[in-house]
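W.,

You were right to be curious about this one. When I first looked at the sequence I had no strong expectations either way, so I just let the prediction run and decided to look at it fresh. Below is the sequence, 931 residues in total, followed by the output.
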Amino acid sequence: MVKHIRLFILLITSTVIIFAGGGKISGVVTDGETKQPLPGVNVIVEETSLGAATDIHGEFIILNIPAGSYTLRASYIGYTSYRIQELRVNIDQTTRQNIALSVEVIAGEEVTVIAQRKLVQKDLTASQKIFTSEEILEMPVESFLGVLTTQAGVNTGADGALHIRGGRSNEVGYYIDGISVANPFTTNGLAINISNKALEEMKVVSGAFNAEYGNAMSGIVNIQTKDGGKDYHGSFSVNTGDYISKDTDLYMNIDEVNPFTNRTYEVVLNGPVPLIGNGNRLTFNLSGRYNDYEGYLYGIREHAVGDSANFESDDWYIELGGNNEYVSLNSSKKLNLMGKLTYRLTPRMKLSLQTMHEGRTYKSYTTTGSHNYRYNPDGTSTYQRNNYNYSLRLNHSIAARTFYQANVFISSTDYKRYQFQPIDLSAAKPSEQYFDSTGYVYYLDDPEFGKLYVLQDSKYVPSNRIMGAPDSDTFLFGGSDRVHEYRQSESRGYKFDITSQVTNRHELKTGISTRYDILDERNFEILYDGQRYNIPVILAVNNSPTHDHYENSSVFFSAYIQDKIEYDNMIINAGVRYDSFNPNEDFIANLLEPEGKVLDDDPEIVAAKTKKMVSPRLGISFPITDTGILHFSYGHFYQMPTLRRLYKKEIFGAGAAPEIGYADLKPEKSVIYEFGLQQQFGQMMAIDASIYYKDIRELLALQSISYESPNYGPASYSIYLNKDYGSVQGLTISLTKRYDPVTKISLWLDYSYQKADGNSVADDAFLFSVLTGMEEEKVIVPLLWDQNHILNGTVMFSQPGKWGVTIIGKLAGGWPYTPTIYKANYNAKSNSERKPWTQNINIRAHKTFKIGHLDYVLFAKVYNVFDHRDERYVYNDTGRSGYTYINRSSQEPKIIDHYGEPGVHTWEEYYQRPHYYMAPRSVNIGVSIDF
């Protein structure tokens, strides 16, 4: 906590400042009768101090408007005032609104109309989708990530990771109020989430995004949060429920329904700061969301960690030290917090201070080996994440058509994987002999092995308590997972952008940014076998295969310039971006001699070079009519590979096959082409279709290298290199029907056809042997997350302010897998077969009651309504999740004679994997109090 207070103080005292996204309103004011332009008309956005006067051509442009709905008012002497309510402004987009004024007949007369949200976006030069806060809140989703998966071109892999247009999951850039919330260890990836009720708008760009965004290759997700206003608004909600399924043969404890098993509490409050708010000059927006989730994947505490077993004779001995209680193996407790202060120093200057936090403690059943602990659940690892982000932002209009946005931010991530309790080796106390320290962990300076760390009074038990093995795949009878992982990062950066509407046709935007990352990662294993290691020991860092650590820093710098050119029959977004990355690290120069040429010779080490990237971007929109628009976009996109792959350290040794980092990795690159069409039909419906192609180069692949070690003879090691290639081609079609009071229905239908191919990543796909001079032939195959067909449908049936029902349905083709023919001399091509199709339906229903100034909203959410078994992972011999034949004939006879004995489970039960399927049906009900 002290660390984050210091970061906050550093943020406040920083002198560099930066950016948040906004939109603009433009149009022409004319005389309603003569159709002639009217100069000098005052056009203002009533909820803000923003406005403009029309020029001699009757044109007006209002810049720097935060995303939201507004009332636009036009007034002119001798003419009736004209007000347009509920005019929607979107991030980085132009809202076009022409106005025709009538000659005033009665003094003070005013015309008021309600704006309709446009179904086609005239300045759309790349595929994107915008969701408002109202739409998100009515959907059966837990966070905005659930909304993303309903969009054409977006899918999830079998592991649940999100992919945009066939790219890898870490190729998506996430921004909240213009601030990147990426995890630097994985280049991208969402580090912090926030409550849906704190959002104003979410914009998803899946095509060629503008030059101001970088270090991403597949898409951008830009979240705009709400600012407080002159009135107080708030919400408190709670919902609770459980999984309800009849799949008792697959899921333990699923028939024990407890309506308070999975609980979520959410609170949002915004408005002027009490006493000192002075109207809306100083406002706040606070949100918090806490989720206590027990999950649906259970084990039974049949064994304790310290149980013993002996399989070295025909009479098996199995100790049963557990209490036979059910224990959740995928539970989670998660807290999201956001605080935002906005101070309007002047009508043209706004200062915002924002802090965000995400903390989570959880168990993971899908982690490799966790299924083995189903009857020894206390032996599994615990995972913990604590991420923070602090930012200070200044928005200043220095002229009617020029403003700058500046931001400085500090963020940190803290990830832990541990058993029993975290271990901080930096806090270890020195000791001269075993067990004379008072701490949980202490160290000894061994003259031969270096600094050894020792645990005392721990719950770890020696592995020799389990003697022999059943000679068949089965569950564990005791012991615990002893792998520990710790990753911490701290990032500091700034960004400065300036936007100027230099003419009515040209909006010029340019900016620079810098980010400095400090990465610290440590991985180790507790050694305790009761023989060589007769106490729990952690070997010396970077001197053994079981303990590695690095601490490195890197620097990103970028600059860009882009021009938005707007004519009635053509809109162009043209820009170029420059990026550089300095890894600040050395690497082994000759990968074929990683240990040097001769015995006890050090390998040649050189400094990694700074990587420099230039990315041109171009997008063009051709409005054929007011309701028909063609667009084309093209761009180059770079991002640095997962930074962990640059810095990882392991040692070479006899029998070791380490995986080492390579600091001279090149940036990954994607070139994107897209053609699209928007067409509106009548007043209620529109279609958006796109075809796209992506050429992806320099992706990371794990290269296996065999070589002759001068110290140990024939050896091998692994290293990530820029060896992989991919290509994606696809078609997306989206149909939108806006809400109307007659049918009371809003509708979105999205279809995607896609082929995402790349190099095979089988175990030997990137093998190179120095001894033979041979390298494996590269084979192009479907990527693991590829789904050829995806159909999404979202239907909202509602009476605004009273009731509503939202249904989200998905039908998707199966993911690829590599088939195996048991005991056949046949090697199938990687990913040459497909898993079964998946399908799912989620529903949210609500009813609103008004009592005084409060809205009471009763709601229910049902996920996987029909409790369908969607198969995520399959066995390669059958292509299904439920059964396999591999090794059964050879393994089961070695255990079948002991069926029925206490602690012995069948071979078939071991291969029934509940995490191979999507989650079963869950039902939550709740209430929200809003004002």
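Here's what jumped out at me. The CA atoms of residues 324 and 683 lie 63 Å apart. And, maybe more interesting for your project: Residues 2-13 form the longest helix (12 residues).

Coffee later to discuss?

I.
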